[in-house]
């Protein structure tokens, strides 16, 4: 019996045992279940600024966890070892209760909660939801670092338990999102909806020759300013990775020009990885 996944706009139709294109969800007895539930591949106590979140509890730290899987196929992925992996990747099971206990233990080291990050956390929707509910019960914060490729209904269900998000806005054309296997309108809808409910910052990674024109940055930041002129935009620098190992890092002077363009519309623009 086939089952259709309602988490993201790919709407994978999965036969029994078949895995979706994110490698993280599977058809099981006429339903779609999370195959990566609680399977942690990476865990670290990071500065909140590393998420990146520049204007949310600055100076604090956050327990950051990732699993495996992603619903995009960006050729420039900086985390492809886990984002493009499936169930065979080495992992450690951590129940939501155990994760919250670990986060509480780290409060004395300035930990404010848990960030779901590294791979695309929302393909493991049920784990993020269960953990976020428990985090709030424990007086801790839930942070999600996501590509924003999620349908409205699951996002609405999760939002009451989310305190902050960093959402990628990878480019400002559907052509760019076609290259990554995604949908620009879905990501715009996610940003619009979430910034009404929790603290949202946005990240745009600049890929040389692909999304690096000042015109595109002007259009992107103009649209963001229509939501909130104060929304934080992180413009970050590409380094060779995954299928783009033979490409040069983004030119630093270009990064500064793009920041200037974005500042025509936005009050809080930060450059990332510029050294
Ligand atoms: S979350 Fe995964 S299984 Fe579900 S529709 Fe998206 S890619 Fe397919």
Hetero groups: iron/sulfur cluster
CATH class: Alpha Beta
Instruction: Indicate the radius of gyration in whole angstroms.
Output: 18 Å
What is the count of distinct domains? 1
Number of strands: 14
Give the helix tally: 8
Strand numbers in spatial order across the main sheet: 6-7-9-10-11-12-13-14
Structural class: alpha/beta
Written as H for each helix and E for each strand, in order along the chain, the element string is EEEEEEEHEHEHEHEHHEHEHE
**How large is the share of residues in beta strands?**
15-25%
Q: What is the CATH-assigned architecture?
A: Alpha-Beta Barrel
Point out poorly predicted stretches.
none
Kindly identify the CATH topology. TIM Barrel
Kindly state the percentage of residues in helix.
Answer: 25-40%
CATH superfamily: Aldolase class I
Shape: globular
Structure description:
- Helix content is 28%, strand content 23%.
- The strands form 4 sheets. An 8-stranded mixed β-sheet has the order 6-7-9-10-11-12-13-14, with helices on one face.
- Helix 7 (214-227) packs parallel to helix 8 (252-262).
- It is an alpha/beta fold.
- It starts with a strand and ends with a strand.
- The model has no long low-confidence stretch (mean pLDDT 97).
- It is built from 8 helices and 14 strands.
- It is globular and about 50 Å long.
- Helix 4 (152-158) links the parallel strand 10 and strand 11.
- Residues 5, 7-8, 10-12, 20-22, 25, 71, 123 line the site of iron/sulfur cluster.
């Amino acid at each position: 019996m086939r089952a259709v996944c309602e988490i993201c706009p790919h709407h994978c139709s999965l036969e029994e045992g078949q895995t979706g294109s994110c490698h993280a969800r599977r058809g099981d007895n006429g339903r779609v279940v999370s195959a990566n539930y609680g399977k942690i591949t990476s865990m670290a106590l990071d500065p909140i600024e590393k998420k990146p979140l520049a204007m949310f509890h600055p100076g604090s730290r956050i327990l950051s966890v990732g699993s495996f899987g992603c619903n995009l196929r960006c050729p420039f992925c900086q985390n492809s070892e886990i984002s493009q992996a499936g169930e065979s990747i080495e992992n450690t099971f951590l129940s939501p209760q155990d994760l919250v206990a670990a986060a509480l233990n780290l409060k004395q080291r300035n930990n404010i909660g848990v960030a779901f990050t590294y791979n695309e956390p929302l393909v493991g929707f049920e784990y993020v939801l269960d953990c976020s509910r428990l985090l709030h019960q424990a007086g801790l914060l839930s942070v999600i670092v996501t590509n924003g490729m999620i349908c409205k209904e699951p996002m609405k269900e999760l939002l009451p338990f989310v305190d902050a998000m960093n959402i990628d806005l990878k480019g400002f054309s559907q052509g760019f999102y076609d290259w990554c296997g995604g949908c620009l309108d879905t990501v715009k809808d996610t940003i619009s909806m979430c910034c009404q409910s929790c603290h949202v910052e946005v990240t745009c990674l600049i890929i040389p020759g692909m999304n690096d024109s000042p015109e595109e940055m002007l259009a992107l930041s103009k649209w963001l300013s229509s939501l909130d002129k104060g929304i934080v935009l992180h413009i970050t620098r590409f380094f060779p990775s995954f299928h783009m190992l033979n490409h040069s890092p983004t030119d630093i002077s270009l990064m500064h020009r793009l920041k200037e363009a974005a500042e025509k519309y936005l009050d809080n623009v930060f450059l990332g990885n510029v050294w």
